[in-house]
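Sequence in, structure out. Go.
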Amino acid sequence: GRYCDCGCGCGCHVLIVCVVYLTLVLYVGVVLCLGPFNYPFNETYTTLIPAILMGNTVVMKLPRTGVLCHFPTFDLFKDCFPKGVVNVVSGSGRETLPPIMATGKIDIFAFIGTSSAADSLQKEHPKPHRLRVVLGLEAKNPAIVLPDANLEVAVRECLLGSLSFNGQRCTAIKIIFLHKDISEKFRARFIEEVDKLKMGLPWEAGVAITPLPEANKPHYLTELITDAVGKGAKIVNKRGGKQDRTFVAPTVLFPVDKTMRVYHEEQFGPLVPIKNFEKIEEIYEYLDSSPYGQQAAIFTRDPNAASTLVDVLVNQVSRVNLNSQCQRGPDSLPFTGRKDSAYGTLSVGDALRSFSIRSLVAAKDEKESQELVSTIVAEHKSNFLRLDYLF
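Output:
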């Protein structure tokens, strides 16, 4: 090392030390992976596979619905990894997960579900400051249809975005804002397309709306509909509001406003609230007051209007979709959110970083240290200090 004038003009000196070092990316520890029922396979493995690739051991809690799809992978895990690398837990999450978190042995909590459940489980950890979290949570993604929008595109994308997979996607469009100048035309075509959607069982040809997997979901959706209708909204499509056990017909509510629960809450089902707007500031107010910030969709052909909205929305949500529905993927793109919608980022690269930590060995660049490091490396005395890794 040597002392050198720092150049700031104050006469102080800074110690400059030459250092040699080696940095590697290593595992963190034990990862608790919880996937959702709506994408029980894909979303569970979105966190589990990167966790394993980075050298962690995994405790996988199977979702309450969709357990059978995991069975084919159990033998693969058994054959490919040493005992204890992948551990599977089934049963009620309320009964199994708090005791696991309470052990304090979980280093990373990878969870896709609701923010309330995530908060509750994190509190069970005895040292929450040591718990790294990767969370994909709920959302209330708006579609914003401006007066110059391509009506055919806007209707098609809003239909797919709000009702594909029964609307049970965190990435689904959860509320539609229509400029008053295009509202009537959009609603007429949108409602017509909604009532064309075929209801039936998943294995039947052409089916778009299927039974809901949650026994309590129809009751919750009814609560939202009743609340909205009681405050001035109307069910504007013919099939809207009809139910048969866990079948819920896609329902369009108009006009909704901020006094209604469905305006704020994530419905996570085949229920589409629509609101008119006159000034774009109404959209800004909604986004600013919302606890969620995952995505938004803009429908316009005006580059000036699109630019203005994009510049505001990117500070409120993590993805802005131009003339297309809100959606996930491809997995090379970052998947995250602001506010209560996410913590951490899931993409191929980001996920690998989330489940690893950088470690380094450093020494002063002096002859004795150089000789020590050279001997360790040349004679392969250390698993860490070596240069024959393949990447």
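Check: Residues 183-196 form the longest helix (14 residues). The first strand starts at residue 2 and ends at 5.
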